[in-house]
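Annex B.
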Amino acid sequence: MSTDQGPLFSTNDTLRMLAESAAPSETRSDNENAANAHLDDDEVILDMSDREKANEMLMAKELKNLQFENPGTNQVLAEYGSIGTSRRKRAVRQKNEQRTERKDPYHDEKGKLVVNGERFTLCDCLRAACSGCHWPCPRCGSRRCGPVCQVNRTFAYQEISDPYANVHHENPFINDH
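ARF7 effector protein C-terminal domain-containing protein: predicted structure tokens.
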């Protein structure tokens, strides 16, 4: 199974041939001049034109191989390929969210109420002296959580009122009223 692809040269051979073709004819080897001495002028011209075409093709091929190929964003994305899982993406996003301080009241990762950067422990019944009057939270086990767990909760109750039991409590740490 032979395919006719023309002469195959190594890189060193190609570079040597390029250097020889760029050199003036006086510096060519005596063996080459002696080999061409027995040919008549027409054969030498044809031989040189074929050689020049081959050299041009080799030079074009080598120049193409030397060209820079921009990898684009593939290289950047390969470096950050470790952030492929949703868990890691979420961790990176949460880290970025923590850098921007929120102004509205919310609860942190431990369930503490955060108002203007200060952290407070407060039951959802909004009484400051209460140490927890609700059933234990199924998510975190705290008795301070009402119907929604306080861990990473994005809101805070401003007031609790029950007109039938005559109960009205306001959040002592939020001064919107």
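The chain has five helices and five strands. Helices lie at 11-22, 30-37, 41-66, 73-79, 86-99. Further annotation is deferred to the next reporting cycle.
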